[in-house]
């Protein structure tokens, strides 16, 4: 009886938002990543800032609501970030360095856009924009994707975020040669001319985006052309990242014991033979498996004295708690390794980059783990644990990584907010370059990305949420 009542309650709770949503004439929350909401926001921005002024920036939707009123009315809240002073350098060239890396100008806007698609009509009914103070205590909330804001260009009038044709017609020789270099360097080819044109448009827009990310960066990083420069943010996210990290709570693990000694000033496990070479996950959201094998490789080395490259494919195929190329959680993967009885080596169970039938064999187990622990969220304690115990599996927001080339990345808080964790990696060391403290992070996108496969991230401000999911296997 009680369980029936509980069930009824659950059903009522489920039904409630739907019945509210169905209220005739009411506004309904819309997905901040939906194409229609984005198109309405692009239109609103182009109207609101038609007079131009100020440099380029990046904008994202905070919330979107739609209302049916003889057409569709969009209520949109957006946030816009731009450099307080902005250079006019060409894309792909070094960003101007005005007055040091201060905080960007932040503008919050509320728009009402009324659209009658059948009549081809679209109007900006209301716009209110005001500077807002960048705050790190903002409510945890997801944002839509960041798009380039062109204050002077009419590009925003149109529904498409990029326009291959336009870029092709008016593309500078410089841009075309950058694209040709890109095609050669990364051995890219497309199926036909239409696709090549489209990819060139995305490439050009991405270079502009990278330029703005660099302008807004508070560290020393250089952003620009990478092997992901021909992908939209959406394509990049769905192919290479792992949104499950932010959505699922993860299996609880017991807290790691804190070392008594404070962290040394710097440490790098690569100098102590505990880290294998950089691997490449390919077009598969399996970062979680690489993060975990990297950690287990280090733990095994430190306990048993031999560095073995371990199998991610075993986790893709045999870890039923996770979702192979659709993502996974390190905390689940440790559990799976314990249940399976260990990991095979990379050589015995090699990486394919897609899910297959499980071919795990107990006879080939090369390493085992006995347990796993959750490590502190305090960056000093993370450093102390790392220096004493080995490389750590971490997760972070990978926003700044698509166009990262080198240097210490320190994206503005809102651009890389800690509640949108979408990538798992391996923390292998830390130190300072000049006066800038950094974390050294082993990524799994091959050696032809970043600094020979590594990402350097600012240390000391929880940058990109790097402190939110730190864990390790334990080998007894
Ligand atoms: C290309 O550039 C020319 C001259 O600068 C300009 O008149 C034209 O409108 C541009 N075309 C597009 C599609 O932006
Ligand atoms: C750790 O796990 C291995 C393999 O399952 C087992 O043989 C060993 O006894 C365990 N160690 C401890 C201390 O439980």
The number of helical elements comes to 11
The H/E string reads: HEHEEEEEHHHEHHEEHHHEHEEEEEEE
What is the distance, rounded to the nearest whole angstrom, between the alpha carbons of the first and last residues?
48 Å
Poorly predicted regions: 1-21, 86-99, 154-162
Strand content: 15-25%
- Counting copies of identical and different chains, the oligomeric state is single chain
- Secondary structural class: alpha+beta
Enzyme class: hydrolase
Family: Belongs to the peptidase C1 family.
Keywords: Disulfide bond, Glycoprotein, Hydrolase, Lysosome, Protease, Signal, Thiol protease, Zymogen
Pfam families: Inhibitor_I29 (PF08246), Peptidase_C1 (PF00112)
Short description:
It is an enzyme of class 3 (hydrolase). Thiol protease which is believed to participate in intracellular degradation and turnover of proteins. Has also been implicated in tumor invasion and metastasis. The protein has eleven helices and 17 strands.
Describe the structure in your own words.
The protein has 476 residues and is of the alpha+beta class. The chain is built from eleven helices and 17 strands. The chain has helices at residues 2-21, 35-48, 164-170, 173-185, 193-216, 233-240, 244-247, 287-304, 313-318, 330-340, 379-389; strands at residues 28-30, 57-68, 72-82, 105-116, 121-131, 147-149, 222-223, 254-255, 267-268, 371-374, 392-396, 404-406, 408-409, 423-433, 436-442, 454-458, 471-474. Strands 1, 2, 3, 4, 5 and 6 form a six-stranded antiparallel β-sheet that branches. Strands 9, 11, 13, 14, 15 and 16 form a six-stranded mixed β-sheet that branches. The protein binds 2-acetamido-2-deoxy-beta-D-glucopyranose (2 copies). One 2-acetamido-2-deoxy-beta-D-glucopyranose binds next to loops. Residues 263-474 form the Peptidase C1A papain C-terminal domain. One of its GO terms (cellular component) is lysosome.
């Amino acid at each position: 009886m009680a369980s029936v009542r509980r069930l009824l309650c659950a059903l009522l709770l489920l039904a409630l938002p739907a019945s509210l949503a169905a209220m005739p004439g009411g506004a309904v929350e819309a997905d901040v990543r939906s194409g229609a909401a984005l198109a309405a926001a692009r239109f609103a921005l182009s109207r609101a800032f038609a007079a131009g002024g100020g440099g380029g920036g990046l904008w994202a939707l905070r919330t979107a609501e739609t209302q049916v009123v003889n057409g569709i009315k969009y209520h949109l809240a957006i946030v816009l970030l731009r450099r307080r002073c902005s250079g006019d350098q060409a894309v792909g060239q070094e960003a101007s360095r005005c007055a040091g890396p201060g905080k960007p100008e932040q503008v919050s806007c509320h728009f009402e856009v009324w659209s009658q698609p059948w009549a081809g009509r679209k109007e900006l009914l209301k716009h209110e924009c005001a500077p807002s103070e960048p705050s790190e205590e903002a409510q945890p909330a997801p944002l839509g994707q960041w798009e380039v804001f062109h204050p002077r260009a009419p590009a925003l009038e149109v529904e498409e975020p990029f326009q291959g044709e336009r870029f092709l017609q008016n593309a500078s020789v410089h841009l075309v040669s950058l694209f040709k270099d890109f095609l050669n360097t990364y051995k890219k080819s497309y199926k036909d001319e239409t696709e090549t044109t489209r990819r060139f448009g995305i490439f050009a827009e991405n270079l502009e985006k990278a330029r703005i990310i660099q302008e807004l960066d508070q560290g020393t990083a250089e952003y620009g052309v990478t092997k992901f420069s021909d992908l939209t943010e959406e394509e990049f996210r769905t192919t290479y990242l792992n949104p499950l990290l932010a959505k699922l709570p993860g299996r609880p693990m017991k807290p790691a014991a804190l070392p008594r000694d404070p962290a040394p000033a710097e440490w790098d496990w690569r100098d102590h033979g505990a880290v294998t070479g950089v691997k490449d996950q390919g077009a598969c959201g399996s970062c979680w498996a690489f993060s975990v094998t990297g950690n287990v490789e280090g733990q095994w080395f430190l306990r048993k004295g031999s560095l073995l490259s371990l199998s991610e494919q075993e986790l893709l195929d045999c870890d039923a708690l996770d979702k192979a190329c659709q993502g996974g959680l390190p905390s689940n993967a440790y559990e799976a390794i314990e249940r399976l009885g260990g990991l095979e080596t990379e050589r015995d169970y090699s990486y394919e980059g897609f899910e297959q039938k499980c071919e795990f064999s107990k006879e080939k187990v090369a390493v085992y783990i006995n347990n796993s622990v959750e490590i502190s969220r305090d960056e000093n304690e993370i450093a102390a644990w790392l220096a004493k115990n080995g490389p750590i599996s971490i997760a972070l927001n990978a926003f700044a990584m698509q166009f990262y080339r080198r240097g210490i990345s320190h994206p503005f808080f809102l651009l890389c907010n800690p509640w949108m964790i979408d990538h798992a990696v391996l923390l292998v060391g830390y130190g300072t370059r000049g006066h800038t403290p950094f974390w050294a992070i082993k990524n799994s996108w091959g050696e032809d990305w970043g600094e020979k496969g590594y990402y350097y991230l600012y240390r000391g401000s929880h940058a990109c949420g790097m402190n939110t999911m730190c864990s390790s296997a334990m080998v007894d």
